[in-house]
Each structure stands twice: as C-alpha cells, then as structure tokens.
Design goal:
The chain is of the alpha/beta class and 558 residues long. It has 20 helices and 24 strands.
C-alpha cells in the first residue's frame, strides 16, 4: 500500500519517479527494471516510463498486470492514478491475445476470442498473411509469413506471443574455456551468466531477444555462452571488418573452437564455416538500388541454429526484411542502447525479440565492471571572421562550420598535455577536420578509406601501448575493442545522435587498472547549432546517471 516513506511517485502521464536517497531504492529499482523503461537517471531522482513495449517485454518474462500493479503499489508514496492501472491492464492484456503455435504440419495463429479474430481479419495490412481461416478463432499461417505477420500486428498494437519454436540447426560441439589461449584464467561474470540464461530460458519463449549491456561489459562472452549451450552453427552479423576480427579473436581465446571452424564473410573473404562472421555492409550490397541483394543467400548457406545481431540498434532496413523470413532460427540481439534513431524499437521486438536483459550503466560502474567516467563539454568561441561566416551561412551549413572550429585544435593539444601517458582517442565525423588534426599533432589516423590491414595494425599498436593517441573517424564508433583507452576527445559528432554518444563513450569504459577512471570530452562551438545538438547528445549521458560538466574556453588571438 502507498506510504510517504516509499520511494516511488507514479504520475498520471505514465512516468514513475524514483528517489535514489531512500532505503527502499534498490528494491524498487529492481522491480521497475522488469516492466518500465529507464528514461533518465541523474543524481537524485530517476525517471521511468510505462509504455506498451515495456509492459509487453515484462509479459514475455512472466510478469502480469497484477504483478506489475502489486509492485507499484508496494513502493509508491501515493495511490496509483486509476487510469494508469487501467492502461497497464490493457497493455498486458494485449500480449498473448494472439498466439502463434506449430502443429505437426503448419503454423496456427489463435485469437483470444471471436471478436478479435474478426477485427484482425478485416485489417487490410494483414490480408496476405491470413489467407486461410481454419476455425472461429484460428488461422493457418505460411511459415514464410511468420515474421511479417508479427511485424504488421505489433503496428496494430497486438504483439504476438510466438510459441512456434525454433529449428535446432546444424550441430556444432563447442565449450567455453577455463583458461584463455594466452594462459589467463577465464570465468564468466555473474551478469554475463544471467544474461545468457535470460536469453535461453522461458521454455518456448526462449531463444529470441535482445541483451542490453554497456560497451566493455562483454556482450561477446554472452553470445559465446549461448553458442556453447545450444551447440549449433552460428551466423554472427557485425558492423565492420574490424569488429569481425575482434569477434574471431574473442571466440578463439575464450572457446575451444578451432580456427578453421570460424569464417569471415566480408571484404575480400567469403568463407562460410560452422561459425561465420559477416558484416552488415556485405549483406546489404547490391549492384544498383533496383537489383537484388547480392549476398542474402548467406542466410541459407548452412542450417544456422543461431543468428547473432551485434549492435542491433544499427540493424539496416534490408536486414530487417530478411530477418522476417528467419523466424524459425534463434535470434540474439546485442546492444549498449536500444535507442534507434529511426524509432523502430517495435520492429526489433517483433523480429529479433523482446528485451531479455538490461543493466544500468552506473550499476555496472559501481561493481567495477566498467570504468568510472567523467563527462565534460568544453564550449569554445569562434574567431570574429568565422563567426561572420557562420552568421551568413545557409542553415544546412551552419553545423559543419561550427563543428570544424579551428579553435578546437588548441584545446586538443591542452587535453593531451593534461593526460600525459594515458591512451587517448580523438574522434570526429568530418574527414577534412580530423585529417588536419592528425597532421598537426603528428598522429596516425583511421578513417573510411584506411585499408583494413592498416587499421588492424594501428588498433593492435594502440592496444599494446605502442601508440599513445589515435585519431579516428566514425568507423571506430562500434564494436572496436580498445581496452586501454582511457580518454576520448570528441571534436565533432553526428548532429544530436544519442546513439552515437553511447557508442563513443563506450570506447573508454573497459575496466582499467589502478583508479579505473576514464574521461570523455566533447568540444562544442559556443552559441551555435552545434551546442543545441549537443544538448540532446548529453541527455543520453545524464539518463545513464553520469554527471555532465560544462566549461568554457577563451578564444585565442588567431
């Protein structure tokens, strides 16, 4: 029952406020994590939101409207708004109202009642997927339509409870090592075990879904554990060749898979092996925009038992399309943030699966699994001449003029001096800008045109400490393992992308020896559209609980 001593305030707009400085904070936080989306988590009060997706995610792991309402009532200060309780019951009631199951010969969609069956059969967007009605509330579904049907139904507000199961796939014996190839003891962390268990558990519900963990928390290990449990051939989709090679290194180091069991499919290689690692770029290649995708045949090259989608929040639209036809395969999505710039989180739910596991970044930091990060925005003025260029520029050019402010070079020099001996990444999106920085600072650079062999050499030199600093374009945003990087200096970013901010911060979050401290700097031109976009980017950091410091820098005499 409600009590003034409780930590929650449930508001009429379906948001929930959680007091951090309360003895019941941790218990309430753990309860909320099962059925509410964390919106922001600054120092004193965290904000959650109850949404259809958050309720449906909860239902997939066994929560009910009653259990959700019971948890809210247990921790709330004030009585729950009546309409919020009604909304929760409505959302929860929709999950399972449509159920997809497999008989010996076909897939069957069953509606909860005749009225719902009549409602969906009259939806124009569902016509091609419901060709045969087998009963008052049942429909025969072609297996090829399994994904597209779920995709269409969630758009109508009815998530399908998919109990049709999965194919076992081609058998692949493998196990995790107790000692890495380099001779270091290897033991999975508790949260990695929990994440793998959450993905695989739940009976017929297990085997499809998304694991959300911070960069540096070992999502690759979670996937390896799932592979070892399932003992099946696996297709792993990644963001680029550097990421593919990192995956291969990790699998060879942490599992007993022989090297010839792992194939790379991207760049100049087209090796299809029991474990195949392919890039999104190669999969979405076609000779022209009207031609078929050249390499989609890879999905049928072997009897895959598991498909892993690394950085699932970046999943390209064409891969969504093919995933709709792969619903009989187990599907594991991995990401540091489910924020998608295209707002297609519902399609991730329908086609990859619901969120199965999530840990707040600051909780991981408290436990020492990721580095403590200090986030600082440094605002710089522009010279009078550049300010005039900015003032008269068309709106679409203002962001680039502000982003390429030459004053940023002096600040980068000062930050390098402030962090002597620490491994530093200088990150930007404009090639001309970062190329100039690399030349002026005498540093190597990795950009889109850098040959893969050169990228691999530079990344390896950075890992081994042979390079103190490295200039990188957005190609290094994703899935690059640079465990010793402790400082990131962002000189330009992709407008207001919170997704990119998460990934760039993630480059420096792997745990460090000693103080386990990392620093993330963002350089922004003062009183410009770049500063306006930065406010949206910093929102992600504040939502994760990071303090965000803002400082100003004086102009030079240039």
């Amino acid at each position: 029952m409600s009590s003034p001593q409780n930590p929650l305030i449930v508001q009429g707009d379906h948001t929930v406020l959680l007091e951090v400085d309360n003895p019941l904070y941790e218990n309430a936080r753990d309860a909320l994590a099962r059925f509410a989306e964390l919106v922001k988590s600054p120092e004193h009060v965290h904000t959650y939101r109850l949404t259809p997706l958050s309720i449906w995610n909860a239902c997939t792991i066994g929560e009910s409207a009653d259990s959700i309402l019971c948890a809210l009532e247990k921790f709330t200060k004030y009585p729950l708004p009546e309409h919020v309780g009604a909304g929760i019951r409505d959302y929860a009631g929709r999950y399972g109202a449509l159920r997809l199951e497999r008989t010996e010969s076909e897939l069957v969609l069953t509606a909860r009642d005749p009225a719902l069956a009549e409602e969906i059969v009259r939806q124009k967007t569902l016509g091609e997927f419901l060709p045969e009605r087998t009963g008052t509330t049942t429909f025969a579904i072609a297996p090829v339509h399994r994904g597209r049907l779920k995709q269409a139904l969630i758009k109508l507000g009815y998530p399908v409870e998919d109990l049709a199961g999965f194919t076992s796939g081609e058998t692949l014996p493998m196990a995790l090592r107790g000692t890495t190839r380099s001779g270091m003891p290897f033991l999975m962390r508790r949260y990695q075990n929990d994440a793998a268990g959450a993905f695989l558990g739940g009976g017929k519900r297990g085997g499809s879904g998304v694991v959300v963990l911070p960069c540096g928390a070992g999502k690759t290990i979670v996937a390896a554990a799932c592979m070892a449990t399932l003992q099946t051939s696996t297709l792993i989709l990644v963001t680029g060749l550097s990421a593919a090679r990192q995956w291969k290194r990790e699998l060879l180091d942490k599992t007993d898979l022989p090297e010839d069991a792992i194939g790379e499919y991207g760049g100049s290689e087209r090796a299809v092996r029991p474990v195949t690692i392919a890039t999104y770029q190669i999969l979405t290649h076609r000779s022209d925009k009207n031609a078929p995708f050249t390499h989609f045949g890879l999905f049928d090259e072997r009897n895959w038992g598991l498909i892993v989608y690394d950085e699932v929040h970046l999943l390209p639209a064409p891969v969504f399309q093919i995933t709709a036809s792969l619903q009989a395969r187990r599907r594991l999505g991995l990401t540091a943030t489910l924020v998608r710039e295209d707002k297609k989180e519902d399609e991730v739910f329908a086609l990859i699966g619901p969120k199965k596991y999530d840990v707040p970044w600051k909780e991981m930091e408290k436990q020492g699994w990721i580095a403590r990060a200090t986030c600082t925005e440094i605002r710089l003025p522009m010279t009078a001449s550049r300010r005039m260029d900015y003032a008269i520029a068309p709106a679409r050019e203002k962001f680039r003029i502000a982003s390429e402010n030459p004053e940023k070079l002096n600040v980068v020099r000062q930050l390098l001096e402030r962090h002597p001996g620490e491994p530093v990444l200088i990150i930007g999106m404009y090639i001309e800008q970062i190329s100039g920085f690399a030349k002026e600072l005498g540093l190597p650079i990795i950009k889109g045109s850098t040959p893969q062999a050169r990228r691999d050499t530079l990344f390896e030199d950075f890992r081994q400490g042979k390079l103190r600093a490295l200039v990188v374009s957005k190609v290094a945003n994703f899935s690059i393992d640079l465990p010793d990087a402790s400082v990131a200096i962002q000189v330009s970013g992709m407008f207001g992308s919170r997704q990119e901010e998460a990934q760039r911060l993630g480059r420096i979050l792997r745990p460090k020896s000693g103080e386990n401290q990392a620093h993330f700097y963002s350089l922004v031109s003062h009183d410009t559209v770049e500063q306006d976009f930065a406010m949206n980017r910093q929102l992600f950091l504040c939502e994760q609980g990071y303090e965000y410091h803002i400082t100003t820098h004086p102009a030079s005499n240039a």
